[in-house]
Amino acid sequence: MSIYKDAKYMDVPYEEKLKLFQEVKDDMRYGQNLYGCYECGICVAACPSARFYDFSPRVFAQIMAREDVDTFYELLNDNVWDCSQCYSCTCCPRQNSPGGIVLMMRDAAVRAGLQSAKDALRAYSRIIYKIMSTGTQVTPDMLQPDFFPDWGTDVKEVAENLDVWRRAIPPETLHTTELAWDVSEKTRLELYMIWKLTGNLELIENLDEGIFMILEEVMEEMLDEHGYDIDDFENILEE
Amino acid sequence: MEQAPAVHTKSKTPMREFVRKGKPPTEDYREKLFELEAKGELEVHRVPDPIMEVGTKYGRTKKIPLEHTWHHKSCGQCGHIPGYSTSIFWLHRQFGLDYYDPKDQSSCTGWNYYASSTSNAAAQAAVAARNFAQAKLDGYYPLIHCGTSFGHYKETREEIIHHPELRDQVRRIMDRLKMPFVFPEEIVHYSEWVHAMRHRIAERQVLNFSDITVTVHPACHYHKLVVEDAIYDRELYDGQRTAIVTGLVEALGAKAADYSTWHDCCGFGFRHILVSRDFSRSFATIRKIERMKEEADPDVTITHDTGCVTTLDKSQFAVQAHGRNVGIPVMADSQFAALSMGAHPYNVCQLHWHGVDSKPLLEKMGIDHAKAWREFEAIAERIESGELDFMTWEDADA
């Protein structure tokens, strides 16, 4: 039972929260991310997200150290996606990494397929698809004025001249519009094998079934072209 | 003309100069890697000669390869600010240094780690190991362009050193890929190469930068994420901040002006820059650009990572509608160094991909930007007409 009167998510069974809390504590990175907390607030002073959101890196360290499972679950749903992942909080005199704690919590949220994680990443599917299917993510064809209207009129100019301007760059690997650079088929194939062998696609399925299905299709086609059967690549982490 | 602010890298309090004594507080990752190699667990890719030695945060020496480098490119640099990586290559070519720009390279996929958590430790470590193995097979040493890839690979190194089960998983994956399990002796960021080369760059400088005032933004994932690899130098900021970028700025004779929020991040935030950009824009302009304007009034801000250039640059457009005090061109150290050596501002540095108007800066540097733009447009027209397939390095320097 939470010690706070205004605690949220009290309808969620404690065991469900505890399971996720324990997953974070069992993460192999946990020991390098939390050593205790002086409650000095240096991490908050350094944190960009603390200036613009109701977000405090100190609370993450304290809640984990105090094993406050109810508040952990609240942070997991309401705050964890506000972190900028800049690691300014590593200035902690106790050598904590609140950003690292956030990352472990996000991992647990995605693995569990929490609705809050799906909501936070809804507009993000295109990036996930780009990374996993092409091996690069921030690609030239993303520079569209309707996606970046606040980046100025030059975005429109770039979009209108994209093909010519990409070829007006001396390194041959950069004459691409759909990829950040020209990634070989061999490399993409090897990445697909890595996604399969590490169960990475299962995480995507938890988050966005549509993207998962498209990715599976793209990967299956290329693996098949090269004489591989997609089902031959078992998840080695489950062995 | 009003004097630019004083350079703040000289000690104001020499009596309080801090000199580290005793052992560094962290283990030496190289010793650990060599121990693993001796046990036959992985192969360590040695830094090839010629090298330059630099000091790091806890006093250890780091080897920087000067050539025979495998350029691990950055998605954001190549995708949205291509003059960044082009300038890195251009600098290598100017010095006749051997390098390789591979197609058998993937992103570090760190976006699926820091932004969306849609990956796991084994996948991330395997992606790193695959790139490192490919570099070894190609006969070149990895030089990491992206600050996040640099930081992420350092984190991966920690995990690989300390977790035998992860090493076992990576080894099995590499076996399936029919590639060796290789890890580099040093993880080297390209800006460390620029830093190591700064005096040679200065020797080849053709433009006078003595009237140019610069603010430096050190990238978070360079000096905050696994801190011990970052370059520190007692001659710069008394060794109390990373010397990266500032070392180059000073070597080129420009004025490195201080500002109070130098330690703050740029506001990039990974997912924020794409789907919560109001945060990125607010932080970049209010905490960084406006502070720089008020406290240093620089001609340009120089940084050394992908997201920092993008966020600090692109965030300045929309806030003009609110009368904010912005208008500082932003570029990478590689572009600044290339310009100093006479690189073409559009053919090589590709400044037309940046948002803030850099023409006043170019004029102050003594560059005829109108002529340069006409030259770029002439090549672009030949490409559009089908006369040229693409711009060659020879075209770029013509």
Could you describe the 3D structure shown?
The complex is a heterodimer of chains A (239) and B (398). With 239 residues, chain A is mostly helical. Among the domains of chain A are: 14-120, Orthogonal Bundle (Fumarate Reductase Iron-sulfur Protein, Chain B, domain 2); 185-238, no CATH class. Chain A is 54% helix and 0% strand. Chain A is built from 14 helices and no strands. Chain A has helices at residues 14-26, 30-33, 42-46, 48-52, 57-66, 69-78, 98-111, 115-120, 125-134, 154-160, 162-167, 185-197, 200-207, 209-225. In chain A, helix 5 (57-66) packs across helix 7 (98-111). The longest helix of chain A is centred in the last third of the chain and has 17 residues, at 209-225. Chain A starts with 13 loop residues before the first helix and ends in a 14-residue tail after the last helix. The model of chain A has no long low-confidence stretch (mean pLDDT 94). With 398 residues, chain B is α/β, with parallel strands linked by helices. Chain B folds into two domains: 29-190, Glutathione S-transferase Yfyf (Class Pi), Chain A, domain 2, CATH 1.20.1050.140; 206-375, Rossmann fold (3-Layer(aba) Sandwich), CATH 3.40.50. Chain B contains 18 helices and eleven strands. Chain B has helices at residues 29-38, 75-80, 83-94, 111-115, 121-138, 147-162, 164-177, 190-196, 198-203, 220-223, 246-251, 271-275, 277-295, 306-314, 333-340, 359-365, 369-384, 393-397, and strands spanning 43-45, 51-55, 61-65, 69-72, 99-100, 141-144, 182-184, 213-217, 255-256, 300-303, 330-332. In chain B, strands 9-8-10-11 form a four-stranded parallel β-sheet. In chain B, strands 5-4-6 form a three-stranded parallel β-sheet. Chain B has a two-stranded parallel sheet with strand order 1-7. In chain B, helix 14 (306-314) links the parallel strand 10 and strand 11 (330-332). In chain B, helix 3 crosses helix 15 and helix 5 (121-138) crosses helix 7. Chain B is globular and about 60 Å long. The relative contact order of chain B is 0.13. Classes of the chains: A mainly alpha (239), B alpha/beta (398). At the A-B interface, helix 4, helix 7, helix 9, helix 10 and helix 11 of A face helix 2, helix 3, helix 4, helix 5 and helix 6 of B.
